[in-house]
Amino acid sequence: MGSVVVRNGLVVHPDGTGVADVLVVAGRVAAVGAHVEAPLGCREIDATGCWVGPGFVDLHAHLREPGDEAAETIASGARAAAVGGYTAVVAMPNTEPALDNVALVTYVLDQGVRAVVDVAVAGAITQGRLGERLAPMAELAALGVRLFTDDGTGVQNAAVLRRALSYARPLGVRLAQHCEDAALVADGSMNEGALSSRLGLVGRPSVAEEVMVARDLALVRVTDAPLHFLHLATARSIALVGAARADGLPVTCEVAPHHFTLDETSCGNYEADFKVNPPLRSVDEVTAVRASLRGGEVDAVATDHAPHTPERKDLPFDEAPAGMLGLEHAAALTYEALGAGEADAHRFFAVLSRNPARIAGLRQCDPRPRHGGHGGAIAVGEDANIVVFDPGARWVARRDRLQSLATNSPYHGRDLMGRVRCTVVNGVVVVDDGMLV
Ligand SMILES: [Zn+2]
Hints:
The chain is of the alpha/beta class. Helix content is 30%, strand content 24%. It has 13 helices and 19 strands. It has helices at residues 74-83, 102-113, 137-142, 158-171, 182-185, 194-199, 206-223, 235-246, 257-261, 283-295, 310-313, 330-338, 342-359, and strands at residues 3-13, 16-25, 28-33, 43-46, 51-54, 56-61, 86-91, 118-123, 147-149, 174-177, 190-191, 203-204, 227-229, 251-255, 300-301, 386-396, 415-425, 428-432, 435-436. Strands 1, 2, 3, 4, 5, 16, 17, 18 and 19 form a nine-stranded mixed beta sheet that branches. An eight-stranded parallel beta sheet has the order 6-7-8-9-10-13-14-15. The longest helix has 18 residues, at 206-223. The two termini are 15 Å apart. 56% of the residues are buried. The structure holds zinc ion. The site of zinc ion has 5 residues, from loops. Residues 151-152, 178, 230-231 line the site of zinc ion (ZN).
């Protein structure tokens, strides 16, 4: 493992910023300062005009392996993540079969060790994600699993979720919920409202999300176990979580880039690339979610990266599977939503790296060795998981440039601001000048 020096970037610390060089030797930050002397043969990266901060951590990536390797693999998803500036991703357990046992979780962790970024695993809360009997959470926690979710759906049965929360607390792990009440969403395929009526599509109402958030907060109150709310898409959901947090409950929440950049009118041409659960909401909700992100009411931006093969996605809107790609454009979309000021730079690294790393339990390195520490300070001795982001870059999202095996991106042709220039994973430059090395 060689050395690399990132020169002249604006280093974004948790408590300030400053132009500096960052020297990385043998996987760790070895020096931070002006005119740092680099060892012979050291790779030089010019970061003039760029932000330098901790590599992004995605709490919510569907890597599709095992079961749907035509849509994505752990290796290809990791490459998409690296190009997007991520140094670690949490692989969601709604694979086929679901990641609900030691053998499958071990398989994904082993594949992850060979991937270009660090791969953590979220285990299923219930066996087969059926929402009935609990998965062996203690055994999975012993493998290093820190997050559990039945994502794709939420745990519908309140008694099951209460039991899971009670088990999770002494294990020191966190549950994460996809909040949509199954009875209220039924077989809806877009946001419920005047537009869904006009298009003749069954809707998924905002209240389906909000009743489940409210119910789950009540269960957190009686169990005192940490709960993370996945991809919240309404102002009221975010406000409920905010009020509970202010009340001292151990809750966190994320929003997905599509929920603060795209609204339900995108579904007007019945293009399935815009179908996602929870659905793209009304213009007012999108504006409110964006304001919550800017206002610091959400902890994290998570992609809900959900690859699908063209064969499956090219179906009529109401028959196509839900989900869209997210890893390669999330940073630019988040930058666009936040802005370019110093406070915005702090918020940018808080929601894309520091907070998700804490929520996923990835701040500390896993000595097995599965992953380095993520979301930490750019400081001497820290594991070198670093991203160089150029806020001045302008580019156009293109399907044919994606690293993901799938192409179901809703952003094809969109003008983007800000681009990942360089990604350093555990001291190794894996992306340079926006390209995989
Ligand atoms: Zn979900």
